[in-house]
Write a structure and sequence with these properties.
The complex is a heterotrimer of chains A (about 200), B (about 150) and C (about 375).
Chain A (H helix, E strand, L loop, with lengths): L1 H9 L4 H6 L4 H4 L2 H7 L9 H15 L4 E7 L5 E6 L1 H13 L7 E9 L3 E10 L4 E10 L4 E3 L8 H12 L2 E3 L30
Parallel strand pairs in A: 2-5, 6-7
Antiparallel strand pairs in A: 1-2, 3-4, 4-5
Chain B lengths: L1 H14 L23 E3 L9 H5 L5 E7 L8 E9 L8 H5 L5 E3 L14 E2 L1 H6 L23
Antiparallel strand pairs in B: 1-4, 2-3, 3-5
Chain C lengths: L5 E6 L11 E7 L2 E8 L7 H5 L4 H9 L6 H16 L5 H29 L4 H21 L8 E2 L2 E2 L7 H24 L2 H7 L7 H6 L5 H4 L7 H4 L20 H24 L20 E9 L2 E9 L7 E5 L1 H6 L2 H5 L6 H9 L3 H5 L1
Pfam families (chain C): Complex1_49kDa
Main location (chain C): membrane
GO molecular function (chain C): NAD binding; NADH dehydrogenase (quinone) (non-electrogenic) activity; quinone binding
């Protein structure tokens, strides 16, 4: 970023050249910044639902349970909660059992390497209420551990194994946490951003 | 008895129907025009813009350009152009981005050889692969300053 | 009482009935399966990792190779995710072409399933019929996009090619032909006493269990739950078409067969309607920026692929390459229930139950 700024200051007149040569790179950079500020004027229609959800969760589990909550404007206005790891196991069983939620269907479960920390993302669906939410749980990078939800949603079994396999997140309480896609003796976790491939190709 | 006649009737009916099998190795299969086969490369049209190399998902194209011998011609001309058919997946993206239709698809699909080395096709080979060339090639989805053509 | 010894049997990874490279380690006691452990990963190519180094157009050919029996839906889920993030408008004609190709692909995929499934449980001729019809669809695709299986047809903002001259008429002919063929299939298989006896009441599971294991597609609908994402969460232009969602009642293999065959009929209906209202003119590729930079954020989209809910979770950091791309592969999720279904079953039912789940190993291993 700083390099970018310096360039702009230094070479005001050679800017034209720059724009031609490195295929609009400098020109396209500021664009996301503009877009980021654009959404707030029109709040999502789902905003009240989110507030209601957050209120219900805090009532049951306390203030610390939810670290952050927002409506994902990019992804079809999906309600998104960032849940504290220590409260996740309790919240998970509540999300499944509570009568006004009943998120019985685990659509997807993905691990993301955010460089400073890991994230496990659950997409839950309620077949009763035809309602979908997304839950993020942040995991420490040095000690990647998170309670397993296999006993709540058996469907999470292979998803968690896959995340363990590719990102190296330990799911405590998982019945059979082994590598699933990679060979058992594989070293390293391929989907981590700092992963160095072992093979140099044929 | 009736079942036998019925079954034989079906057999006879199928006997007069047109053949559904091909005599493939003896007679080459005819592919539709849009078929994505081995590329044909036209060195004269190439402007060394490197777009095909950049879009290739498997990095199977390598090319080098040189300064033109003719001082009147601006820009580079192609020097070497190679496609590695060991890893080429014939996905059609190179022909799609080529602004001058220098690399186009043909209907040839036979790539089986006895040696892997034969799968490195150089510019000479590719420019002689000039039969059964596909008619519609660059589809310019993205607006381009130099002669946006629509196939 | 016959005394039997427990034995470990390895099914696959090279076994014709596992439809690819699935390996199942089965512990059997005589003829009864005590425990079955699927071992997967033989076809793992790291698509998700590779995608992190490719831009969005380049990923599309890679998705062809996931579920290679219905590559169109893979193509579609990726471009759908990118389009959702970019909030792009898709030209009408492109949407129609997408629906037509998606549904034709669904028919082709179900025909492959039907043919190979009956082959698995011992009927040879339906396979030949099914592949003959599927071949017609593949020829149509070959003409449309130049490949029979790896289509690489969808693009962000539309589709690559417009339909060639006379293609739509050919699709129409195919539809009429296929509607007649469906009657043949029903005559050949649906009422077949041997087939019914082999599949009725085998591999049964409850609706509750299906939900617990997050089954999707025909595997879920067979238990009576009417969940089809084309109806429930319409994407593309599926809300414009009239079609039913066939469900089963017993949750057994025969119902799965009926479900899938009825889905083929519904797909034929959708294609028919799409052809009837196909826009005369128009672009097939919308206006998209030259370099696709997806705004920072994430999204999860899911579509109804022939095998179930095919999802795509995309995390972007504002670059032209995805930060993280995760596919929710229906085959992968559906396969999880296999050990549960096999426990206590007869060895001879292994292939029947496995085939009923309808997996494609390219997708399981990704």
């Amino acid at each position: 970023m700083t390099e970018e700024n310096n360039k702009e200051e230094k070479t005001a007149q050679s800017k034209e050249d720059q724009e031609k040569k490195p295929v609009q790179r400098p020109a396209a950079r500021p664009r996301p910044r503009v877009k980021k500020e654009a959404p707030p004027p029109e709040p999502s229609p789902k905003e009240p639902l989110l507030a209601e959800l957050v209120q219900q969760v805090t009532e049951k589990l306390g203030e610390q349970a939810i670290e952050e909550s927002y409506v994902n404007q990019n992804g079809e206005h999906l309600l998104t909660l960032v849940v504290n790891r220590d409260h996740w196991a309790k919240l998970a069983s509540l999300l499944k059992q509570e009568a006004n939620w009943q998120y019985t269907y685990l659509q997807n479960c993905a691990g993301v390497d955010q460089q400073t920390y890991f994230e496990v993302v659950y997409h839950l669906y309620s077949l009763e209420h035809h309602d979908q939410i997304c839950v993020h749980v942040k995991v420490d990078r040095d000690q990647p551990e998170i309670p397993s939800v296999v006993n709540i949603w058996p469907a999470a079994n292979w998803h968690e194994r896959e995340i363990y396999d590719l990102l190296g997140i330990q799911f405590t309480g998982h019945p059979n946490l082994q590598r699933i896609l990679m060979p058992d003796e594989w070293e390293g976790y391929p989907l981590r951003k700092d992963y160095q491939p072992l093979d140099e190709g044929v | 008895m009736f079942g036998l006649v019925k079954g034989l009737g079906l057999t006879l009916k199928n006997m007069v129907k047109p053949r559904v099998t091909y005599k493939y190795p003896h007679e080459p299969l005819e592919m539709p025009n849009r078929f994505r086969g081995i590329q044909y490369f036209i060195p004269e049209l190439c402007i060394v813009c490197n777009q095909c190399v950049r879009i290739c998902p498997t990095d199977c194209i390598t090319l080098t350009g040189k300064k033109s011998d003719d001082p009147n011609v601006k820009g580079k001309v192609i020097d070497t152009y190679e496609i590695n058919f060991e890893i080429c997946i014939l996905c059609d993206l190179c022909t799609e981005v080529c602004p001058t239709e220098a690399v186009v698809m043909t209907n040839h699909y036979e790539l089986a050889t006895y040696s892997r080395d034969d799968l490195y096709k150089d510019m000479e080979w590719l420019s002689q692969n000039n039969t059964l060339v596909r008619k519609e090639n660059t589809l310019h989805p993205l607006p381009k300053k130099t002669g946006a053509k629509k196939a | 009482m016959l005394r039997t010894e427990e034995m470990l049997l390895n099914v696959g990874p090279q076994h014709p009935s596992t439809h690819g490279v699935l390996r199942i380690v089965v512990k059997i006691d005589g003829e009864v399966i005590r425990e079955a452990t699927p071992v997967i990963g033989y076809l793992h190519r790291g698509t998700e990792k590779l995608a992190e180094d490719l831009n969005y157009t380049q990923i599309i050919p890679y998705t062809d190779r996931m579920d290679y029996v219905s590559a169109m839906s893979n193509n579609y889920v990726l471009v759908h995710a990118v389009e959702t993030m970019l909030k792009l408008e898709i030209p009408e004609r492109a949407e129609y072409l997408r629906v037509i190709t998606l549904e034709l692909n669904r028919i082709a995929s179900h025909l492959v399933w039907m043919g190979t499934y009956l082959l698995d449980i011992g009927a040879l001729s339906p396979f030949l019929y099914a592949f003959q019809d599927r071949e017609k669809i593949l020829d149509l695709f070959n003409e449309l996009c130049g490949a029979r299986l790896t289509y690489n047809y969808m693009r962000v903002g539309g589709v690559k090619w417009d339909a060639p001259n006379g293609w739509l008429q050919k699709v129409e002919q195919f539809i009429t032909m296929m509607e007649k063929r469906m009657k043949d299939y029903h005559q050949l298989i649906t009422g077949n006493e041997i087939f019914i006896q082999r599949t009725r009441g085998v591999g049964v599971y409850s609706q509750e269990m299906a939900i617990q294991y997050a089954l999707s597609g025909a595997n879920l609908r067979v238990t009576g739950l009417q969940r089809d994402l084309r109806k429930e969460h319409p994407y593309s232009i599926y809300d414009r078409f009239q079609f039913d969602v066939p469900v089963g009642r017993h949750g057994d293999l025969y119902d799965k067969y009926l479900c899938r065959m009825n889905e083929v009929e519904e797909s034929l209906k959708i294609v028919g309607q799409a052809l009837a209202s196909f826009p005369e003119k128009g672009r097939v590729l919308g206006k998209v920026p030259r370099v696709l930079r997806v705004p920072e954020g994430e999204c999860y989209v899911s579509i109804e692929s022939p095998r179930g809910e095919l999802g795509c979770y995309l995390v972007s950091k504002g670059k032209d390459k995805p930060w993280r791309l995760k596919f929710r592969r229906p085959s992968f999720c559906n396969l999880q229930i296999l050990p549960v279904l096999l426990r206590g079953e007869n060895m001879a039912n292994l292939v029947a139950i496995l085939g009923g789940i309808d997996i494609v190993l390219g997708e399981v291993d990704c």
